[in-house]
Amino acid sequence: MDEDFPGTLGFAQTDLVVSKFQQEVYVSVKRSEGSDGKINCLIRTEPMSDDQKGVTNNAQEYEDYIPLHETIEFASGENEKTVKIELVIDKYKGGKTNNDKIDPDDVADEDEEEIDQGEDAQDVMFKVKIEKPQPSEVKISKKNICLVTIVQNEDIKKE
Q: Domain map of the chain by residue range?
């Protein structure tokens, strides 16, 4: 690695699979091909598609995940940063905490159907993007988008 250049930014992994029962997902941003100087970039989440028509696996902000719009900074010589994205655990979808007490009378009919979805529930996805690197000499690699899939069943495959 030539340390005389500011480097190129990209994700360590471009596809992540998490369970709907997880509270957060961690995404790693790597700095390669140089590590000279302090640099920064914007990390942002967004739905798979802005056009909701016909997109069935689009994760929803605040319903499936908390949107992130954050600038991360690398110090000179620093090569990796990890960003935490919070996932929304809906107590009626099985992600209840010990402090949550569900009164059966409070659950509407449609909520009961949602609980019983089981294997028919569809996995949903959202994107995490790297944007606006500073200074302008910093490059963004082709690994500038990370797709996060939230699987609806408990058995997720370890990759």
A: 8-151
